[in-house]
Specification:
four-stranded antiparallel β-sheet, EPTP, glycoprotein, repeat, signal
């Protein structure tokens, strides 16, 4: 059946990150809004089928707000460009976010991205640092808070980090503006990440995202200038499958809706292109254009019977698209 992305809701603010999460059986969304100096937390209204304001965390230069639900506690890691970065916890006794700790500003100077994940039952998050003097840092959750666990990849102006678990091996892929993306693999004995190699020949990558089809693993590498790439992971090497022309692309996001696999490639100068994966050709084919100004993320959010695609915009309203399957049988 044919399908389409249509605008479902317009959120009247600019945002640079969007992170869906489920807490106490409800669906929420955390958005970093540098212009409004806050992390906005929205809650999905299942009756009205809309996102509604829920709460705000003050953050005067927020670049990422990362919710982590661990051991039935809700934490939000707030990364700011200036004035340090902080961790908040939702306090159920007073129903508000309480600041519980700050993140060492000597280690994290210009945060750019946060990923959170579990390895062998432990919770971690990693902050990519885009300053020349900082290093991308890994933190681990213990009973009282998150503790600095490992410094990774210093001095490289890192832009993005992606967590991939492939054949039971946890890995981080870190992209940076000064070299090809590097791969780290988790060493279970030492409980640390160790460098494993790089994703060859692709420099100046803004963002790394992965997806899996059956047993194959793929990476999407977005670039601001030149072509963005789709590569297949073949053991120790990466094979380029497709180069997608991109002008001013800060974000390239694969996502699946049911059996369909899509890729959204943003642009600061033209339309966002949505592609659809062709399994036979092992390539993405053009599917639809979306008009989003300066998109900074795309997030697929299944909300009960509605499939949403969130598009935070750096320059205009943030858009919520709905995936609609068109039944032509009538």
């Amino acid at each position: 059946l044919p399908a389409d992305f249509v605008v479902h809701q317009v959120l009247p603010f600019q945002a640079v990150s969007a992170e869906p999460f489920t807490y106490a059986s409800d669906l929420y969304l955390a958005l970093a809004q540098p212009g409004a100096s806050s992390c906005a937390v929205l809650k999905w209204d299942y009756v009205e089928r809309k996102l509604r304001d829920f709460d705000r965390i003050p953050a005067h230069s927020a670049v990422h707000c990362k919710p982590i639900v661990a051991h039935e506690q809700l934490y939000v890691v707030v990364a700011q460009l200036f004035g340090g970065s902080y961790i908040y916890r939702w306090d159920t006794t007073v129903d508000k976010f309480i600041k519980i700790q700050d993140i060492d500003s000597q280690k994290t100077r210009k945060p750019n991205d946060i990923e959170a994940f579990q390895i062998d039952g432990d919770w971690y998050f990693v902050i990519a640092d885009s300053s020349k003097a900082g290093s991308t840092s890994l933190y681990r959750l213990s009973q009282n808070g998150f503790y600095s666990h490992q410094a990774l990849h210093a001095w490289h102006r890192d832009t993005d980090v992606e967590f991939v678990e492939n054949e039971g091996k946890p890995r981080l892929i870190i992209s940076s503006s000064s070299q090809a993306p590097v791969v780290y693999q988790w060493n279970r004995a030492q409980k640390q990440f160790a460098p494993q190699g790089e994703v060859g020949d692709v420099l100046d990558v803004q963002m790394v995202k992965h997806f899996q089809v059956k047993r194959d693993h793929f990476l999407c590498l977005s670039r601001y200038i030149g072509d963005s790439k789709v590569v297949r992971w073949e053991g120790q090497r990466f094979v380029e499958l497709q180069a997608l022309p991109s002008r001013g692309s800060m974000v390239m996001q694969p996502f699946a809706v049911g059996q369909r696999r899509y890729l959204a490639l943003g642009s600061d100068f033209s339309f966002t292109h949505v592609y659809l994966w062709d399994e036979e050709k092992q390539k993405f084919a053009k599917f639809q254009e979306l008009s989003v100004q300066a998109p900074r993320a795309f997030r697929y959010v299944p909300a009960a019977d509605v499939q949403l695609l969130l598009a935070p915009s750096f320059k205009a309203n943030t858009l919520v698209y709905r995936h609609v399957v068109v039944d032509l049988s009538l």
